[in-house]
């Protein structure tokens, strides 16, 4: 390597994936769970503000289109309540401004109170003494139920307010005097206080779309997308693709997903339509749901007009082993790759670096954590054969890790952007910017991409377990009913059924099923999935099968980070 080449900075791509499944009940438009709006307040807003605050920062921000729809719906709901008192269709958000909340001791009281404690205890509850006191009170009453008679209606009002205060992003907490005043007050919140907090929430929703869009138009970020409802495309195309990385995996009883290719194409085309309506342009890249790829999926993405995609480096390891090439050769994960007959570029997540952010650095001092990460990246840069063809990819979800960091990772993310953006050996970029260079990075040719996802390089998180396979069998049954009856429906019913089917095809239902996940989360997603399937039969004007009244999975595990995240490498299973 020449001195000139050695001095060139190596590109670093930070790709943040934003996704929540569709929590809407399409029978009535109500939201069953509040996670979409809560992550919007805490994470999507903070991630935007960090990028706005660092002019030299660059990143890829990937949205699932079904999340974009929900964000727009919540914006309209909150504005509708403030402007015209239109009821909010999310019971937790509505509770913030309801005139009367459930009476202490009632079942509805306990349901709402317990939900308002679903926040990370150490970072989000105990950070605030007043919120911690309310949580401690609930702990005491859980052990001594007879003491609930000492609770009054104000207790639940204060708990609901603190729940929403704790789920706010760090920028608005530091900058908005209304938030500062509520936190200083601590309790005894009035209707005026609650309305003021709803106005804060409304503003957080209003700035998301124009904020991300402006950064995209300025070339400071790249926006990319996942297929519409976040399905695992290779499994829609072919269940047997799971055997490429797991030869002995047990497949669902149905040998394939009916009409899977057409459904995969539908999710891509519908996703593009939603993305373009929301942001006013089409993306050049697609983070296929969970980085789940196969040769057939790559073909589909290229046919749909995408220029790049990405997955985990375990998929690369499997692919290199498959063609008898050592993953430790100069052909390493920090390159662009292609497969025969395609120009689509595939990038591979550095699982080790990404997992350091997701699982290790939360308890470190922010500057030490960023310094350690940079040291790892500089080592990669110095060992790269050609910086012009090298790219370090850190890809992870942009919403779930930060609640485990102090102050929603404000210090860590500020230091991350600042220090990489000004580093002499590293340069922040995007995949679009990288591929637009002249000349672009020279890709490495793979004979074949072994099908897999960023999680362990396999599809084990979504298929193979008995409970997950049963969920697929229920979906296959519903899809056959859809194929049989959809064409006989009137236009509205057909549209409703199509939307409901897409909701059922999302990846999250399969992610959460299994004994290794927490029982509460398994129960929530099991109930929601079976409700979506039941709604599909109702839209099809068919009887709901009796088997959908029975749980698919029980759960009972305690995985790291509560199961919302996974490590990339199989040597760290949950």
Counted by DSSP, the helix tally is: 23
Q: N- to C-terminal separation? A: 41 Å
Count of strand segments: 10
Q: Taking Cα atoms only, what radius of gyration do you get, to the nearest Å?
A: 24 Å
Proportion of residues in helical segments: 40-55%
Structural class: alpha/beta
List segments where confidence is low: pLDDT < 50 over at least 5 consecutive residues. none
Q: Report the principal-axis shape.
A: globular
Percent of residues in β-strands? 5-15%
CATH class of the largest domain: Alpha Beta
CATH architecture of the largest domain, by name, is Alpha-Beta Barrel
Mean pLDDT: 94
Please give the largest β-sheet. Answer: 5 strands, parallel
Plain-language structure description:
It is a single chain. It is built from 23 helices and ten strands. It is of the alpha/beta class and 574 residues long. It has helices at 3-7, 35-53, 65-84, 91-95, 107-115, 121-125, 129-143, 153-166, 170-175, 177-185, 191-217, 233-237, 260-279, 295-303, 313-322, 351-360, 366-383, 410-421, 431-435, 466-485, 491-504, 508-512, 519-539; strands spanning 10-18, 59-63, 221-225, 285-286, 308-312, 336-338, 345-349, 392-397, 426-429, 444-445. The strands form two sheets. Strands 1, 2, 3, 8 and 9 form a five-stranded parallel beta sheet that branches. It has three domains: 3-19 and 226-445, 7-stranded beta/alpha barrel; 77-206, no CATH class; 466-563, no CATH class. The two termini are 41 Å apart. It is globular and about 70 Å long. Helix 20 (466-485) packs antiparallel against helix 21. Strand 4, helix 14 (295-303) and strand 5 form a beta-alpha-beta unit.
